Amino acid sequence: MPARNREQIVAFQTKRLRSVVRSAYRRVPYYRRLFDHAGVRPEDIQSLEDLSKISLTSRNDIQHLRPSEICARGVAPESLLQRRTSGSTGMPLTIRRHWFEERLLLAYRIHSQYSWTELWKLRRATIKFTQATEKAYRGARSLSERLVLPRTVIDWRLPKEEIVRRLQKIRPTRISGPPGILSWLADELTDADRAVIHPELVVTGGETLTAGMRKQIEKGFGVPVRDAYGSHEFVSIARECLAGGAYHVCDESLIVEVLRDGKPVEAGQEGELVGTALNSYAMPFLRYRLGDWVRRGPDSCPCGSPYSTLLRIQGRVIDRFTLANGKVVHPYELANVLRDHELWLRRFQIIQEQRDRFRIRVVPYQQPTGQELQQVAAKIEARIGNGATVELELVERLPPMESGKFYPYISLERLNAWRQGAVSTPQA
Asked: How do residues 238-266 score in pLDDT, each as one tens digit?
């Protein structure tokens, strides 16, 4: 855009909303059925207030549909960029985008980062769990990575000493990664490390940034922490204001609703985040239930930004499973094995019952054979190593925890500590 006031943002969103709704109805079988069932026509959606006429869609609704049902007619699904989600919700999904849509979303993300630092002097280091699924998007991102936002990716599974050595060599102006990993690394840094590694900013994302994690990271690195909130479906959703506190919603790329019992909440209240992508035509997301619980903020930030805001993100904290010998295993490593069987796997939950004993509860689309279950268990045991045992349990449903939220990764050791008040979150 960029927008100068709230009226411009609303006008832009309204225009894009009408366009994406018309396209989804004409070209995407799933949305035509959804609209027809509710008796809604594209011309009924003329303003942001009309969004409520569109039925909500969840990952469960589209997860197992054929690409031809959720992708636009006239677009070959195999020609689209594909991103298979990591399964952090316990329900993997393949997301497809046209290369131009991907570049546009990346451009919006770059624009949202301008306020954080000057791009010309930006040196980025990202500490994360590297996934094979990123290869599918590498071509789409290579130009922006090389010319605009170059970065060095460091696998968190490397020894701490090697991570520190690489950071000392890069001397990044910005370090980013999941807060669980960055808080662990921050606790390990020495004064000598900080003398060489002194970024201007640390950016977290991918998990909920708790108050304790923020304190650990800011103390360990000696710089402010700012959080970024995104998803595979929408790329960037919101970024924490430079002044701290509120998150600026990426209003140019999506419309965010915060609902409780299907109705919008007031500013300061919490509810479920529902997003409508404004730049996704090949595989639209209209009133898509992301599964995250957030606190809605005012329609503009106290800093003067015209973008709508969120005050708190209550996503899933994805920590690591610790084995008896001290080895740590990231849940995504195990989820990646399960994703290979998504033709019969609907939903899953990984539970670490003891340090070297795991139980994986699976809701299947269709009944797998005993041999298939044994093969999956053997693959996961091999991935964990160290003599760990894995049992797969077929169930009809996966109930939420007593907090009301569903956690796909659970360590019973940590859960017991949470119940006793020793830790602030029950996730693995």
From this structure: 999 988 889 999 999 999 999 988 899 99
